[in-house]
Write a structure and sequence with these properties.
Blueprint: E1 12-14, E2 20-22, E3 30-36, E4 44-48, H1 61-67, H2 82-91, H3 93-99, H4 103-118, E5 126-132, E6 135-143, H5 145-155, E7 159-160, E8 165-166, H6 168-171, H7 181-188, E9 200-204, E10 256-257, E11 260-261, H8 262-291, H9 301-310, H10 315-340, H11 342-357, E12 365-366, H12 369-373, H13 379-391, E13 396-403, E14 409-411, E15 420-422, H14 428-442, E16 445-448, E17 451-454, H15 455-458, H16 483-486, E18 490-491, E19 496-498, H17 500-509, H18 534-537, E20 538-539, E21 551-558, H19 565-584, E22 591-596, H20 599-629, H21 639-642, H22 645-668, E23 673-674, H23 675-702, H24 711-740, H25 746-782, H26 805-818, H27 823-841, H28 860-871, E24 874-882, H29 891-897, H30 908-917, H31 919-922, H32 931-939, E25 947-949, E26 965-967, H33 973-976, H34 981-993, H35 1005-1008, E27 1012-1014, E28 1021-1031, H36 1036-1057, E29 1061-1064, H37 1068-1071, H38 1073-1099, H39 1104-1127, H40 1134-1160, H41 1166-1196, H42 1202-1234, H43 1241-1248
Parallel strand pairs: 6-9, 12-23
Antiparallel strand pairs: 1-2, 3-4, 5-6, 7-8, 10-11, 13-21, 13-22, 14-15, 16-17, 18-19, 20-21, 24-28, 24-29, 25-26, 27-28
Helix pairs in contact: 4-5, 5-7, 8-27, 10-24, 10-25, 11-22, 11-25, 20-22, 20-41, 22-23, 22-25, 23-24, 23-25, 23-40, 23-41, 24-25, 24-38, 24-40, 25-40, 26-41, 27-39, 27-42, 30-36, 38-39, 38-40, 39-40, 39-42, 40-41, 40-42, 41-42
Protein name: SSD domain-containing protein
GO biological process, one term: cholesterol metabolic process
Subcellular location: Endomembrane system
């Protein structure tokens, strides 16, 4: 948007009568102003004058020194008067504001215009070719190419900080990449730019033409120091002052051995070595047994007795025996008491559960994703809170991504030029239709608490109250959201000279322009007072060819009201109306993907509601199975007597009671729930609780009551035998979960707290309330009373007691098969192979959570996510926040941050600029917008931006014409320097309140009003931010990398400027967890496993080796879970970490009972003891946890929720299958090889007892 000066000279010119008049060399071609331009009536023309230069009046001398400081003509006469100098000053305001940040650039530019306007030798290089009356109407300007190129080279890198584009994009009439010296000068002197009152025709030549010598004054490079002391331009504005272009470090090469992935090779070598050693050990053992002693030979009772009697137990073994004995006695007494006093125990249990569950009245459910995924003490959360406190919360958005099936079009510029393709979404008819849609959305009315809510009530209006128009980031804002402007055309009946194509091409290169340079002369600036950057409003283009766009992006930013529920409710109401409108909107030419800020939460809530049926069916299947499978039917006649439906239902109610008690107790404490807790904990507690129920019931069913033993004594004895095993598993899980609550991840911490308490309460209820109910049920069964209808009694009959089918299968078929001598090595080889594979791929499990997985299959948001990834070219806004402490009033403090002349090479703005040069590595897309650099340009005394009323001291906007408005700073050497001290803070509030206008495009209200946090009394700058954008980030790894790189850059800046600086973007609070999720997972699972080792060691009577068997098997299950995650494309995140923590607990159920049964078995050797443990405990574990869960899990595969399918169905199924395989197949085989060989204290105690 240029200005051009009104001047000319010549060696031969035409007067008004067509006669050629010669002008003597070293003379003028004009002097003074007379007449108005026919092109621009408000512009003056210069008076035709061929005489010698005239002395400038004294009042014009300061103005000449201000405008042409490098051309002090001294007492020499010039070819301009004071009026011409005033016109020159007004015409150069915009280039002054955008180019003066590079002194050499502006010096050369002023050289061009000062020689044109006032040069005393005008006739050497100016040729007037047309005169109207007494005014110059056209002239030729002879310019040396060396001068033109030097001027262009000094200016081509200068940036416009507020709009993140090169300044020449605003001043050249084309995108900066298409501009050169010739095009720029031709544009400045063309009447088509809307500023030049008459044609000035530049002629470029190195030699004299027709007696005219080209103006070829000396120029300065942007890296030079000027005579007035101005320093070289900054690196941001002059690549010559930069050091070497930053080069991103090379990516670390993949770790390979012999061209293969190193982990795979290492695990192959490990597995091969293991097989060799294992087979060798088996061969050696076989030879040893054949020559010396056979482990499988019978042990004579006399030898056994002699051995037992000769054992000398260690201190730990004696302590363990006493501890085990104490547990037996305690649980035996307790079980007998519960059976003898069932009503008291049941009533007490119900009362305690009711009291605990009463806390559900205070239950709070956390649905805020920030609270769910980000710890209040985390770095990202603290930075978010800091940003929200100082600058306000990040705005909400409603967004459309529009595509079409129409074809691309070709535009042919007039009068000449290459054809320009335009993408299908830039068809004018389609743009009209999109504008209709946009205007309809603007007119939406929602209702909130009886009040009407419109877009204007909730939208972001940066210039309010001066301009209340809503911010709408749309290409239609290039046309002021007007059908009339979109249809604006200049031409005749035969040709179109300019239309919306030309305006669009100009606006995408100069979005902040207030007047395009086409014949249309329409503004590009949005109606809300700010620019619409093309990378935010268009998608699907290549490089910067925005005309090839295949998608339109329309964004409605809304104010966010985190602390104001009333205002937030109004925004939510409007968003709901927007979503409803878009769901019902259709157009044959448009495909629209849309989303609002509330969309994700709404869809997750809808997903949860839709999955309730699936979850209920899943639990119903498990409940029915438990109720039916607990009974051991001896004959069809006794079906209703031997069934245990009522006992099964009671067991399920106990599980649910333990869950509700845990939720209630923590609700009393004010700990909020999460959806993960509600969805996962019932599954976990049901798995643990049902397993214990089956062990208790089936042990009782297989037990024979001794003569003279009463039922309470029998159940007490049974509980004394099995309760230590139940206590071992439950307490191990409880401790593991509570230690897992040390995690910083809120979802994991909350789950661990609720799960640990629920499991322990479930154990307490099972050994009390359930035992009492078992006693009552046993009495009912012995009395031949029907289940459920216990008042009905069958006639007495003799029935033979038999073992259950599963027990017989495990005892007679399964256990002997897997423990055969040839089967065991195969099992070990297979499971070690699985382990080796899982270790090899554990580092290949992807970290993150694909946001598409959180949506239902039929969600409209899925298409939005797809289009977002496919079409958008720019990522989220990125803010570099400088905390309080920088003294912006001092030059030293300014140099730490700014990016202009004199600023440090490692300043904040410069470092972010360097990062933007390697955006593919740094993920920083653009140079940052810098309020400080724009403020320096705004406050310069040469500019008309900073003025105040000399009678009131109030700010005077540049558009105001009032003689009482005077410049803020004097035209003195000190006044031309940056403001310091009181001056800095005095004028800064004026800058932040100034709206951009055609006379001053540097006003900071629109761009920076929220970027600077002034102190309460306005005497200092507190926190401030410098905004840029991330590159497009599509998948979780991209977001994680973006966060990493931004934090690295912020840390480097903090080190360089010795002030705290942090990077902030709206997605950081969600993705920060992934920076440490691998470490958190390793720590969480390691702590859980170690706690299980300690608890198991103590509760197994200090049997460290047996505890190690439990831990080894659990560790294998966990490692194999990672192998399954890699195979099944399950990423590592908070949800999967919760499931892994849960799998650690469930794995205890699969392993601890088998190991303890092995430890107390009195069989003669390892194989027999393993077989005995598997037969007695394996069937209960299999029927209790494996079959129960298997049926329920399969139903989850039918869920519409992708997150259910991936993180619940797949992971739950894997947990159950891997747990069953390791606990019921691998662990017995492992015990048969390396379980305790000698008969220990439990065997001795049991045998001698």
């Amino acid at each position: 948007m240029l200005y051009a000066i009104l001047t000319s000279t010549m060696a031969a010119r035409i007067d008004g009568n067509g006669r050629e008049n010669s002008v003597a060399p070293q003379h003028c071609v004009w002097y003074g102003e007379c007449g108005s331009s026919s092109v621009l009536p408000d512009k003056k023309l210069n008076c035709y004058y061929t005489g010698p230069p005239k002395a400038l009046p004294p009042e014009g001398q300061p103005l000449l020194r201000e405008l042409c400081p490098g051309y002090d003509y001294g007492n020499r006469s010039v070819c301009c008067d004071v009026d011409q100098l005033q016109t020159l000053k007004g015409s150069l305001q915009l280039p002054l504001q955008f180019l003066s940040r590079c002194p050499a650039c502006f010096f050369n530019l002023m050289n061009l215009f000062c020689e044109l306007t006032c040069g005393p030798s005008q006739s050497d290089f100016l040729n007037v070719t047309r005169v109207n009356s007494s005014s110059v109407a056209e002239l030729q300007y002879y310019i040396g190419p060396a001068f033109a190129n030097a001027m262009y080279n000094a200016c081509r890198d200068v940036q416009a900080p507020s709009s993140n584009v090169p300044a020449l994009s605003l001043l050249c009439g084309k995108d900066a990449k298409d501009c050169n010296a010739t095009i720029w000068i031709q544009f400045m002197f063309s009447i088509d730019n809307g500023q030049t009152p008459f044609p000035i025709i530049p002629i470029f030549s190195d030699t004299a033409i027709s007696g005219f010598s080209p103006m070829n004054n000396e120029t300065v490079s942007c890296s030079d120091i000027l005579e007035d002391g101005s320093g070289p331009c900054s690196c941001q504005d002059c690549t010559l002052t930069c050091g070497p272009t930053p080069v991103p470090p090379p990516l670390p090469p993949p770790w390979k051995i012999f061209g293969w992935d190193a982990m795979i090779v290492i695990m192959w070598i490990f597995y091969t070595c293991f097989l060799l050693l294992f087979v060798g050990a088996l061969v050696c053992a076989w030879c040893y047994r054949r020559t010396l002693v056979s482990e499988y030979g019978p042990i004579q009772d006399t030898h056994f007795l002699l051995f037992v009697c000769s054992v000398n137990f260690s201190c730990c073994e004696r302590l363990g025996e006493r501890f085990e004995h104490a547990l037996r006695v305690l649980f035996t007494w307790w079980g007998s008491l519960c059976v003898r006093r069932p009503l008291l125990v049941i009533a007490g249990s119900v009362l305690l559960v009711a009291l605990s569950s009463g806390g559900l009245a205070y239950m709070q459910i956390t649905t805020d994703p920030v609270e769910l995924w980000s710890s209040p003490s985390s770095q990202a959360r603290q930075e978010k809170d800091y940003f929200d406190h100082h600058f306000g919360p990040f705005f909400r958005t409603a967004q459309l991504i529009i595509t079409t099936s129409l074809n691309s079009t070709i535009y042919s510029p007039y009068p000449a030029g290459a054809d320009i393709p335009f993408g299908p979404v830039l068809d004018k008819d389609l743009l009209h239709q999109v504008l209709d849609l946009q205007l309809s959305i603007e007119g939406l009315e929602a209702s909130h608490e009886g009040q009407t809510v419109t877009l204007k009530d909730v939208c972001l209006a940066p210039l309010s109250p001066y301009n209340n128009n809503c911010t709408i980031l749309s290409v239609l804002n290039y046309f002021q959201n007007s059908h009339k402007v979109l249809d604006h055309r200049v031409g005749d009946e035969f040709y179109t000279y300019a239309d919306f194509h030309d305006h669009f091409l100009y606006c995408v290169s100069a979005p902040a322009s207030l007047n395009d340079t086409t014949k249309l002369h329409d503004p590009c600036l949005g109606t809300f007072g700010g620019p619409v950057f093309p990378w935010l409003a268009l998608g699907g283009y290549d490089e910067t060819n925005y005309n090839n766009a295949t998608a339109l992006v329309i964004t409605f930013p809304l104010n966010n009201f985190l602390k104001d529920s009333e205002e937030r409710g109004r925004a939510l109401a409007w968003e709901q109306e927007f979503i409803s409108f878009m769901k019902n909107y259709s157009h044959p030419n448009m495909t629209i993907a849309f989303s609002a800020e509330r969309s994700v939460e709404d869809e997750i809530e809808r997903e949860s509601d839709s999955d309730i049926t699936t979850v209920l069916i899943s639990y119903a299947i498990m409940f029915v199975y438990i109720s039916l499978a607990l009974g051991h039917i001896h004959s069809l006649r006794r079906l209703l007597v031997d069934s245990k439906v009522s006992l099964g239902v009671a067991g399920i109610l106990i599980v649910l009671g333990s869950v509700s008690s845990s939720l209630g107790i923590f609700s009393y404490a004010g700990v909020p729930l999460t959806l993960i807790v509600i969805e996962v904990i019932p599954f976990l507690v049901l798995a643990v609780g049902v397993d214990n129920i089956f062990i208790i019931v089936q042990t009782y069913q297989r037990d024979e009551r001794s003569p003279h033993e009463e039922i309470h004594q029998q159940i007490g004895r049974i509980l004394g035998d099995i309760a230590p095993s139940l206590f071992l598993s439950s307490f191990s899980e409880t401790v593991a979960f509570f230690l897992g609550a040390l995690s910083d991840m809120p979802a994991v911490r909350t789950f661990s707290l609720f799960a640990g308490l629920a499991v322990f309460i479930d154990f307490l209820l099972q050994i009390s309330c359930f035992v009492s109910l078992l006693g009552l049920d046993a009495k009912r069964q012995e009395g031949n009373r029907l289940d459920i209808v216990c008042c009905v009694k069958l006639p007495e009959g003799q029935e033979t007691k038999t073992d259950g089918f599963l027990f017989r299968f495990f005892k007679n078929i399964f256990a002997p098969f897997i423990l055969q001598e040839w089967t065991r090595p195969v099992i070990v080889a297979v499971f070690v192979a699985m382990l080796s594979f899982s270790v090899a791929v554990i580092d290949k499990v992807e970290i993150g959570l694909d946001q598409k997985l959180s949506m239902p299959d039929d969600s409209y948001v899925l298409q939005y996510f797809k289009n977002l990834s496919e079409f958008l070219h720019t990522g989220a806004p990125l803010y570099f926040v400088v905390e309080e402490g920088v003294n912006y009033s001092s030059v030293e403090g300014q140099n730490l941050v700014c990016g202009g002349v004199g600023c440090n090479n490692d300043s904040l703005v410069q470092q972010v600029y360097y990062a933007s040069l390697i955006s593919n590595y740094s993920t920083v897309a653009y140079t940052p917008s810098s309020w400080l650099d724009d403020y320096f340009d705004w406050v310069k005394p040469q500019s008309t931006c900073c003025r105040y009323y000399n009678n009131t001291g109030q700010f005077c906007n540049a558009s105001v014409v009032n003689p009482s408005c005077v410049p803020c700073r004097p035209m003195t050497p000190s006044g031309k320097h940056r403001p310091e001290g009181e001056d800095f803070m005095h004028f800064l509030p004026m800058f932040l309140s100034d709206n951009p206008n055609i006379n001053c495009g540097k006003g900071g209200h629109a761009a920076y009003a929220s970027a600077v946090d002034l102190s309460a009394n306005g005497t200092a700058v507190g926190a401030s931010y410098f905004m840029t954008y991330h590159t497009i980030l599509r998948e979780s790894p991209d977001f994680i990398q973006g966060l990493k790189m931004a934090r690295t850059l912020a840390a480097n800046i903090s080190t360089a400027i010795q002030q705290p600086v942090f990077a902030y973007s709206v997605f950081y609070v969600f993705y920060e967890q992934y920076l440490t999720v691998a470490y958190d997972t390793a720590l969480n699972l390691s702590v859980s496993v170690f706690s299980i080792l300690l608890v198991s060691t103590v509760l197994l009577g200090f049997e460290l080796w047996s505890a190690c068997m439990v831990v080894v098997t659990i560790s294998m299950i966990l490692i194999n879970m990672f192998g399954v995650m890699w195979l099944w494309n399950i990423s590592l995140n908070a949800v999967s970490l919760v499931n892994l923590t849960m799998s650690c607990g469930i794995s205890v159920e699969f392993c601890s009972h088998i190991v303890r049964a092995f430890s107390i078995s009195v069989k003669g050797n390892r194989v027999e003891r393993a077989q005995d443990a598997l037969a007695h405990m394996g069937s209960s574990v299999f029927s209790g946890i494996t079959l129960t869960k298997f049926g329920g899990i399969l139903i989850l595969a039918l869920s519409k929720s992708q997150i259910f399918q991936v993180f619940y169905f797949r992971m739950y199924l894997s947990i159950v299958l891997l747990g069953a395989a390791h606990g019921l197949v691998f662990l017995p085989v492992l015990l048969s090889y390396v379980g305790q060989y000698f008969l220990g204290r439990w065997q001795s105690y049991s045998f001698l007892g």
